[in-house]
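Dear colleague,

Thank you for sharing your sequence with our group. We've completed the structure prediction you requested, and as agreed, I am returning the results in plain text so they can be pasted directly into your records. Please verify that the sequence below matches your submission; if there's any discrepancy, let me know and we will rerun it promptly.
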Amino acid sequence: MIGGLARRTYGNAVIVASARGQRRVPFQPRERLERRRDARIRGIVGHAAATVPHYREWFRSQRIDPREISGPAELRQLPILDREQVRAEPERFLSDGRAARGALSFSTSGTTGTPLTAHHDRRSLLANIGWGERERGPVIDLCGGSFRPSEVYVGYETSTFKKVSAFYAANSLLPVKPARRFVPLSEPVERIAEILDEERPDLLVGYGGWLDLFFSTLSARGARVHPPKLVMYMGEALPPGSRERIESEFGIPVMSRYNAVEAFKIGFYCERRTGFHVHEDLCHVRIVGADGEDVATGRSGSIVISNLVNRATVLLNYPIGDVASISKSPCPCGRTFQVLSELEGRLEDMIPLADGRVIHPREVWQVFKHDPQVLQYRLVQHEPDRFELELLTEDEAAFSRARDRAMPELLRLLGADAKVATHRRAEAELSAGGKYRAVASLLPRGDAEPVSPPR
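Please find the predicted structure tokens below.
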């Protein structure tokens, strides 16, 4: 009992210390923010070189003093990690130092390949609560100033959700807990609409693909629900155009947070919703091209992250698989963090064609964006010229009409020689992790560089 009280007291101390001043951090002058970022880069690199097998061996073999890595420019000296190596040999990236003792393990959903296991040290998990104050401000403002917005969270009660919740319950004495109702993703749209009418929450949270399907279904059926004050999508990007449609048709602002098993805090939307404000002092973000070199500001490329705060699994220059760009302009909200564009998809969502062109998911969306009878679509590339198209519609008649409207435009996009098998889906389909990929190429990944979305 005493041990449990001491553990919770320590947990609260970490949370309070990490929360102090966090609302002001995103507005700090760039010089001060960069000093915080660089100090964390030096700290994590020194920790990795001393306690993580992969980095310990790398620094020795390259005969580089880790103290030479003092900021983002020097961090580029470390090679970009091989995602498959990290997935296959997670123990090589796990610290054997004291800070990692008792670390909690988490796994990705594995929707685009083999799941990845990452461990997070206990202190950084607790500090994440305090760092979250940066993200709460915009949510509180859009929810009418409520300190504890009521929330309906639709998703899978995954191992990550359970582990984090159980860890916080066992290691802290939080006086204010979220006013949250968890709803399984398996519930039908009609039931979730009833729950929204019953609960009248400030905030509706879910995966991007599910939220798109939910509001598309309401629109197709002419149904309405009591509107939450805010919609928050996490875990995957919304399909192109979905945010604008929800905001214009239903009048609900849509926000997002960018996080992953590899780094619990990467970025967050502010009230202006211009993109993700990057937690630069917690997670360093680079945008690179196919050659592994940084691309020009404003140009799309692969996101490469370095988690600067986790002392268990250390991932420096890790390609997370998403595609985006860094904005050339600061956000008008006044925050000084870099702004990452809304995610443009994943590398696996780009479709390379036999003629050398690479089709962006936004180009596929253009085919279906004006068709209200298509509740969901999925285009899968099996071979360079062989595709499968699934359409979720209310009935067979709607499917036939939607297919006939879409096929001429889709063939113009994919090429006249493309073979496209089509079929109807009667029910929504998500992966085991609750995510949905509207466009996917099953071809082995080549050297095609991510392209900017069509304007």
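Summary note from our side: The domain at 1-279+308-313+328-345 is CATH 3.40.50.12780 (Rossmann fold).

Kind regards,
the structure core
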